[in-house]
Amino acid sequence: MLLATSVAPAVWATTYLVTSELLPPDRPFLAGAIRALPAGLLLVAVTRQLPHGAWWWRSLVLGSLNIGGFFALLFVAAYRLPGGVASAVGALQPLIVALLAVVVLGQRLTARTLVAAVLGVVGVSLLVLRGETHLDAVGVVAAAGAAVSMSVGVILAKRWVSPASSLATTGWQLTAGGLVLLPLALVVEGLPSHLTSENVAGYAYLALVGSVLGYALWFRGLRALPPTDVTFLGLLNPVVATVLGWAVLDQRLTALQLLGGGIVLASLVLAQLRPRKAAPEGPEASGRPEEPRAAQASGAQGVAQRPQVAETPEEPDLTRRRDRASPS
């Protein structure tokens, strides 16, 4: 389950490459709406399940936090900040989720989780930050808001257990998030005058692979696994994106980036470790079934009541022979 869930952030890492190479420029909100809304409607049509009762407004809340609000804030941060800064701020998400899980879900915050979260931030910073980085206050707030938005969405998605399948719930959230983004895209950006075949291919990839596949695996893993474990997998996103930039776009990798990638992977491994349980004592340790107490008691009584018969040597037959030999 953990391995399948890790495919989602790896797939999302290709978004940067697809956006820069295939999509029209200066249309981030439109890209988010097209990425979410058609994918959500497709999943709703396939599952043939609609929300019931409270799940109408819950789907809107979750879709706004995990999809609509997250995409909008993330794109604002991407436009006002260098990509490395936005990724570094986003690396705070595992720590935010771990703290929220304590308050909302009653989970215990361990030192291992804290150390892994700090290592994740350090590793991503080494991986993506450059020496001359100029910070924009609005961009930093937007990046932090995106991390908080998805963190709250992850916790609420774990707290509100949907009666429907995870695929149907994913469709509801994507549809709601797309409906939040669509008016923003139309008002702020407008529609492009024309689309090339490359643009269509890019949008189709983001909708089918990035959203249908990616979010279906993500929310399926979130339903089965602890939220902190799932959120740590998001640190794979900048790692895979950096590797793709090196492999496809011929970007140069430095020693600090390699070190940062190694620290991120160490953080992921540390976050998934679990303390070993103590070995059981008694019959369970040897693998033999324990004998019932009643049988043990009766067996002990039987041994105690069993008469002890003394073994004497066999009497010699001399007396019989003497009696036969003597006259009557």
From TrEMBL:
InterPro entries: AA-Vitamin_Transporters, EamA_dom, EmrE-like. It comes from the Bacteria. Pfam families: EamA (PF00892). It is found in: Membrane. Residues 5-128, 139-270 form the EamA domain. Residues 278-328 are annotated as: Disordered. GO terms for cellular component: membrane. It is a multi-pass membrane protein. The chain crosses the membrane at residues 29-47, 59-79, 85-106, 113-131, 137-157, 169-188, 200-218, 230-249, 255-273. Keywords: Membrane, Transmembrane, Transmembrane helix. Residues 294-305 have a biased composition (Low complexity). Belongs to the EamA transporter family. This is EamA family transporter. It comes from Sanguibacter inulinus.
